[in-house]
Fold this protein.
Amino acid sequence: MWRLLLGNWVFFCCFRISRVCKKWRDVSDFTWWNSTKIELFSWFTQPKPVDFLKVLRKCDPRRLTSISFVDDEYIDDRVTLLPLLGFTNLRSLNLNNCSLFTEAGAQSISTLVKLENLELHRCSRLNPVSTSYISYCTALTNLDIGLVSRVSDESLGYLRTLTNLQHLEISRCRRPTSAGLLHLTHLKNLRTLDLTSCGDIGPQLDFLSHLTKLELLKMARCSSIPDHGFSPISTLVNLRQLDVRSCKISDECMRHWSTLTNLTTLDLKRCYYVTNNGLVHLANLTSLQTLVISKCSKITGSGLSALSKLTNMTSFDTSQNKELSDKSLEFLSCFNKLSSLFLSECPSLTGTFMQYLTKTTSLTELNMENCTSLGGSDIAPIASQIGLRSLTLSGCEHINGESLSYVAHLTNLRSLMLFQCPSINDEGVKHLSTLTKLHFLDLSNCPGISDQAMQHLTNLHSLSTLSLTSNPQISSSGIAHFLNLTVSQ
């Protein structure tokens, strides 16, 4: 029984219990020897190299296929012990955030020829020569060298031998240029590529046209690439997810995206050059399920009607659009499969747009934070969205007791955010007593509620977190009933 319970424990849990007595030591030894996967953490104390050596010697080299040293500031080149101890059957090695790991440690990895997954995210001391040792691991299918600041064009040149690679992350590596990215043309099997915040990879992305199997491409905040530099994206006909947040994408570039018929997720957040005409070019991408156009300041409400053909949409985000009106959201009536809708910081919305959601029975998440015109009887149609599990109305100064009477019909709600809603009072909170499935409730900075409001919440037995900060009328005695909850006051 104890062996089963301890089978998933991490390094220092099992290492410490082995010191209790012989019986516990036997249990610990059995756990290590039969493990195929171990996670080594140093949460409790600073380990010594001998500690890791002792643990590795307790493991069966023939069984062990996965080792993780996640977020361990004390892990350095001690990983060189792995091949010396015979762990050449490793398939997965995670060294994320091991900032003391250097070129010497990387050299030992070159002998792990069966390695399929290698994660070196934020191993900041690695240099281009370190990448040359990784190139010997030709069985690799997943490699993460994101936030390794010394990754350069030379580093990417060494990766050309990894022809089995399917997933590559080099996000936030500032040194690679378009010349270095040309080396990636040899990685014909790539399915996912993350180039987020790679500063100088422009102006051209011609290498992308060789990666015909790409299904996910992340290029957020690649600000050095001009609009025409993104044109090779149109050749990626197998692409399913595209993230170009904060890039210089324009309507002209999107005109060529009609070939991306398999695209299901598109993130255009902060693409300030996209206008209503750009949305017209998305009309034929009928496989789209997730679309983000928040902070696209040149998109107005009148242009959203072009999206009415995207009937497979499940998640839509047009937050922070000052021009958005209730009438401009009429196209939502075509989104029968919509499950998540984000409309935060749209000051002109009053809530009457919800009448267009009556045909949508699958909506589970609705965010209308800081929609300052929202409130009163205008949100009455929300009562029909009985499938909602998460609702955010924080910062909506006109949300009052009448508004909450309609929210009271949403009996499947798990999370309700009402932070900074000054029009809510004790009587308004009374309507929330019907929401018996609530797990999280935020009533912070609602100065109109007092201890009396707390009495209306006593039957919310599923509640696990209640936030009441900055409410001067609520006292310790008022929240006495909620002592078993996580209450912030």
